[in-house]
Write a structure and sequence with these properties.
This protein has about 100 residues and is α+β, with helices and mostly antiparallel strands. About 40% of the residues lie in helices and about 10% in strands. The chain has five helices and five strands; from the N terminus they run E-H-H-E-E-E-E-H-H-H. The strands form two sheets. It has a three-stranded antiparallel β-sheet with strand order 1-3-2. A two-stranded antiparallel sheet has the order 4-5. The protein is elongated, with a radius of gyration of 16 Å. It starts with a strand and ends in a 5-residue tail after the last helix.
Length: about 100
């Protein structure tokens, strides 16, 4: 789930040469508390496992996979959801499996 601020949506809409209303209709949905979210998983802008708008990517994408943030265990679903497509997450999970003595 990628949250998007108004400023980020405006910036990317301009980058894509879209009116903001067109951008919202094509790429966004409203979440709880009026949060704006990208309406697809994986993100529309992920192409061949690379971000097609990398220089203008959203703040949440800049932090991804957020391994530096506290409460890693509360985001396990997200980590496992991206296990196959994110080499960083893959390597961290595999290393944890070894350290925690997971059976194969």
């Amino acid at each position: 789930m990628i949250t998007v601020s108004n400023n980020e949506a405006n910036r990317v809409a301009k980058l894509l040469n879209l009116k903001r209303s067109e951008f919202d209709e094509k790429y966004m949905e409203k979440g709880m508390h009026d949060l704006m979210l990208i309406n697809a998983i994986p993100c529309h802008f992920l192409s061949n496992n690379k971000c097609s708008i990398y220089q203008d990517r959203f703040e949440g994408c800049r932090e991804f996979p957020a391994l530096h943030l506290p409460y890693f265990q509360k985001r396990l679903f997200t980590h496992f959801m991206h296990y196959n497509r994110c080499p960083i997450i893959f390597n961290v999970i595999e290393q944890l499996k070894t350290q925690l003595l997971f059976e194969k």
